[in-house]
């Protein structure tokens, strides 16, 4: 049983501040129709998020002041949903908790969020596509920050689901931010609908969990409450039809774990629900950085880690997570090779890196997953914002084939971008190297069936990652500039609002690895307990017993990761800088492979043919035309009205004869009938 | 003292006369008078029953008498409206025969 924790009224203000500003923006735009001036609105939003970050830092300091095993701040605001009495009572509180896991997430969200808010001031400055665009943009951005903070701070699944849906909504709103372009609106809808599929799984898992806990006699929705009844849950199983594998009983924890993982697949863009994330790049670039790289898409990873006590005792569900993550990592990385849109490359890279995190989480390396989540938030936000700077400089050109040679022109952006590329490629001593290494080690050491294969896939992905990231680098920053002459003469660095957040993020991309320095490296430079992140997170996360692994092996694994990253970098250098004609030759001679990669393995087309078209056809031809228009509207609503009208027109209307005497007669008959009924004359 | 069943019987007779008058006569004035007859038959029944109940309870019950005052007030209003309609009807049609007033129908 987890102890109650220390009260702290501070916590509620962390999500509340962005919500207040978002509400102000919403009212001033929507109701008063007098929004604040763009610059004021932007600064207000930035101030709110920065204030949240400061509050998070204060809470973090309070947390560190507590002893190791009692690090938990709680803030119970009010009872949101109360139902039932006695032993069947269920209450969902609006209450926040700040344990090590929430602390790490909150700091990442508020810090990276602040940087991206500041960046957005510069990025959205020249946006004239829509009046009140800037205010609306910051309204959504703050609303998103609120929802994300609720997600990571909530102490129960119901409130977490509120945040979960809230970030999905804001994602939809921001992807379709420039909604006058129909394609953007379509992409927003796609993201929303695919996420809905995942959320359905989340809900099923939630209901199964409620039902099981109610059967045990202690319905609870808070994480601590669920954790307290884990032993009871473990005894339960669920009957499945005989034709399914491993019939007739599945362990309930596995089923619940898989249902929640379906939700995580939707939110965190894993196979088979990853298709929305690349299309989400239709949104403004700061949105891609904040929502679709650094924070929202990591919600699934956070959830798996938050429920780590459940997954640690559900090995089958964990194995599914690990394998899904590994396959996603590799598949998305290979797709990224052949993309020409700079943001699409980064989008597939995000999918791939999220796959890495799930690989770690499935293998029981929850700290490794959170570590990579943190470093990825820094370097991927850096890369996206850098790409945004490039796009601004190129006058909203996103095709890398029309870039090149930006090294000499973007003097402020080039170094930070190179840092980002090197970090994701995994070169020591940048943070990406350590976090990726942790994941590979946890995959190697895990008990998951086929864990050596998982390690191999992870290693191969590391090589492919280095390849496509340096391909991106060489195509944009090196070689000759392929832009049209009139664009070429105007390429220059964006303003300070854009460049300075990049520098901050680049700094943290370099040094964030120190937080989670693996012990094997700490030993080399004789630091005890070097992995402070893992030690800090330990009370909040469940532990899965890994295989023992020797320090020698671990060092060899780090070495091979660097070697394969260098291999990928070298291949990219050879193909895109040294021999720039070779890629075209390869594309022509291996056109089947190339076309499959360019077209993303035709997954969108397959989904379209297998799911979307049949569903639309069913909805249109059967559900709409026959069931709704034919039965419900035709026979039900209109049919009822028509039949009553026909009855009145053909019979009832003749009762209104205009003859007073007949009215009197009917009145008397009616009065006699009522009186006879009241006096029981008819009985 | 007058036996109460006589009072009730008188009320019933007056009410029946009123009903028959409304149902059978075509003259609007007579119909209105018949309605008044019905109302007053009811008033008679009210005061009669009021007396019965006050005797049973052994204390002064005046509910029925108050109700009679209410009915008289409503009847007065009704007559005012009814005669108003009758007057304008007569001015337009030179007749108070309800059988000739049958335009408002299907």
Description:
Chain A is mainly α and about 675 residues long. Chain A folds into three domains: about 5-590, no CATH class; about 600-650; about 650-683. Chain A is about 70% helix and about 5% strand. Chain A is built from 28 helices and five strands. Chain A has helices at about 15-30, 40-65, 100-125, 135-155, 155-175, 180-215, 225-230, 230-235, 250-265, 275-280, 285-295, 300-305, 310, 315-335, 340-360, 365-395, 415-425, 430-445, 450-475, 485-490, 495-510, 520-525, 530-535, 550-580, 580-590, 590-600, 605-650, 660-680, and strands at about 5, 75-85, 90-100, 235-240, 250. In chain A, the strands form two sheets. In chain A, strands 1-2-3 form a three-stranded mixed sheet. In chain A, a hairpin with a 6-residue loop joins strand 2 and strand 3. In chain A, helix 3 packs antiparallel against helix 21, helix 12 (about 300-305) packs antiparallel against helix 16 and helix 15 (about 340-360) packs antiparallel against helix 16. The longest helix of chain A is centred in the C-terminal third of the chain and has 48 residues, at about 605-650. Chain A is globular. Chain B is mainly α and about 110 residues long. Chain B has one domain (about 5-95): Helix Hairpins, CATH 1.10.287. The mean pLDDT of chain B is about 90. The interface between A and B is medium-sized, with 11 and 13 residues.
How can the largest sheet of chain B be summarized? Answer: none
| 3D shape of chain B | elongated
Work out the largest interface and the residue count of each chain.
Answer: A-B, 11 and 13 residues
Oligomeric composition of the shown chains: heterodimer
Structural class of chain A: mainly alpha
Structural class of chain B: mainly alpha
Rg measurement of chain B, Å? 18 Å
Principal-axes geometry of chain A comes out as globular
What is the spatial order of strands in the main beta sheet of chain A?
1-2-3
H/I helix tally of chain A: 28
Regions with little confidence, pLDDT below 50 for 5+ residues of chain B? none
List how many beta strands of chain B DSSP finds: 0
Please report the distance between the alpha carbons of the first and last residues of chain B.
Answer: 55 Å
CATH architecture of chain B: Orthogonal Bundle
- In the CATH hierarchy, the third-tier topology of chain B is known as Helix Hairpins
- In total, the number of strands of chain A is 5
Q: H/E order of the elements of chain B?
A: HHH
Mean pLDDT figure of chain B: 89
Strand content of chain A: under 5%
> What is the domain tally of chain A?
3
How much beta of chain B, percentage-wise? under 5%
């Amino acid at each position: 049983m987890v102890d109650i924790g220390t009260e702290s009224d501070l916590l509620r203000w962390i999500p509340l501040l962005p919500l207040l500003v978002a509400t102000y923006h919403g009212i001033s735009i929507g109701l008063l129709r007098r929004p604040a001036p763009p610059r004021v609105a932007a600064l207000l939003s930035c101030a709110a998020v920065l204030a949240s970050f400061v509050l998070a830092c204060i809470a973090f300091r309070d947390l560190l002041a507590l002893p190791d095993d009692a690090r938990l701040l709680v803030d119970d605001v009010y009872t949101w949903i109360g139902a039932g009495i006695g032993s069947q009572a269920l209450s969902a509180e609006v209450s926040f908790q700040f344990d090590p896991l929430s602390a790490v997430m909150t700091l990442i969200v508020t810090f990276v969020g602040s940087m991206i808010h500041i960046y957005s001031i510069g990025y959205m400055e020249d946006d004239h596509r829509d009046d009140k665009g800037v205010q609306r943009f910051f309204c959504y951005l703050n609303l998103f920050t609120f929802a994300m903070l609720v997600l990571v701070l909530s102490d129960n699944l119901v409130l977490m689901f509120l945040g979960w849906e809230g970030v999905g909504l804001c994602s939809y709103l921001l992807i379709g931010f420039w909604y006058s372009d129909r394609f953007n609106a379509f992409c927003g809808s796609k993201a929303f609908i695919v996420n809905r599929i995942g959320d359905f799984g989340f809900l099923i898992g939630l209901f199964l969990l409620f039902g099981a806990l109610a059967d045990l006699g202690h319905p609870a929705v808070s994480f601590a409450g669920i954790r307290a009844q884990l032993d009871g849950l473990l005894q339960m199983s669920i009957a499945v039809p005989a034709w399914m594998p491993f019939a007739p009983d599945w362990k309930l924890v596995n089923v619940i774990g898989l249902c929640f993982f379906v939700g995580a697949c939707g939110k965190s863009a894993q196979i088979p629900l990853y298709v929305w994330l690349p299309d989400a790049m239709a949104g403004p670039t700061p949105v891609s950085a904040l929502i679709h790289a650094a924070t929202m898409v990591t919600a699934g990873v956070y959830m798996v880690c938050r429920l780590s006590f459940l997954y640690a005792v559900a090995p089958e569900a964990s194995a599914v997570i690990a394998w899904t993550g590994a396959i996603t990592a590799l598949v998305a990385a290979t797709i990224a090779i052949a993309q020409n849109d700079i943001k699409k490359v980064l989008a597939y890279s995000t999918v791939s890196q999220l796959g890495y995190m799930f690989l770690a989480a499935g293998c029981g390396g929850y700290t490794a997953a959170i570590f990579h989540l943190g470093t990825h938030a820094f370097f991927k936000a850096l890369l996206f914002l850098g790409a945004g700077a490039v796009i601004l400089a190129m006058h909203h050109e996103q095709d890398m084939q029309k870039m090149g040679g930006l090294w000499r022109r973007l003097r402020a952006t080039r170094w930070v971008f190179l840092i980002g590329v090197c970090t994701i490629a995994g070169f020591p001593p940048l943070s990406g190297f350590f976090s990726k290494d942790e994941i590979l080690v946890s995959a190697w050491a895990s008990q998951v069936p086929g864990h050596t294969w998982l390690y191999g896939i992870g290693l191969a992905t590391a090589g492919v990652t280095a390849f496509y990231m340096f391909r991106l680098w060489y195509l944009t920053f090196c070689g000759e500039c392929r832009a049209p002459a009139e664009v070429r003469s105007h390429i220059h660095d964006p303003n300070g609002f854009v460049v300075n957040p990049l520098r901050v993020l680049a700094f943290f991309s370099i040094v964030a690895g120190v937080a989670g320095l693996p012990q094997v490296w700490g030993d080399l430079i004789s630091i005890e307990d070097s992995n402070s992140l893992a030690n800090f997170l330990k009370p909040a996360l469940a532990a899965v017993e890994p295989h023992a692994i020797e320090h020698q092996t671990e060092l060899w694994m780090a070495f091979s990761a660097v070697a394969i990253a260098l291999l990928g970098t070298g291949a990219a250098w050879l193909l895109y800088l040294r021999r720039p004609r070779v890629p075209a030759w390869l594309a022509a001679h291996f056109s089947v492979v190339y076309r499959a990669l360019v077209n993303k393995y035709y997954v969108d087309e397959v989904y379209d043919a297998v799911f979307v078209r049949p569903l639309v056809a069913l909805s249109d031809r059967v559900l709409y035309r026959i069931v709704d228009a034919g039965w419900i509207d035709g026979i039900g609503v209109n049919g009822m009205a028509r039949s009553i009208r026909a009855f009145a027109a053909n019979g009832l209307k003749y009762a209104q004869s205009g003859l007073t005497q007949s009215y009197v007669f009917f009145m008397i008959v009616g009065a006699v009938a009522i009186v006879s009924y009241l006096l029981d004359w008819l009985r | 003292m007058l036996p109460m069943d006589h009072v009730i019987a008188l009320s019933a007779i007056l009410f029946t006369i009123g009903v028959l008058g409304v149902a059978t006569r075509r003259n609007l004035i007579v119909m209105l008078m018949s309605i008044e007859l019905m109302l007053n038959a009811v008033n008679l029944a009210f005061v009669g029953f009021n007396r019965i109940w006050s005797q049973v309870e052994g204390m002064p019950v005046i509910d029925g008498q108050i109700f009679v005052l209410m009915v008289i007030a409503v009847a007065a209003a009704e007559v005012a409206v009814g005669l108003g309609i009758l007057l304008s009807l007569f001015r337009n049609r030179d007749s108070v025969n309800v059988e000739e007033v049958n335009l408002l129908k299907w």
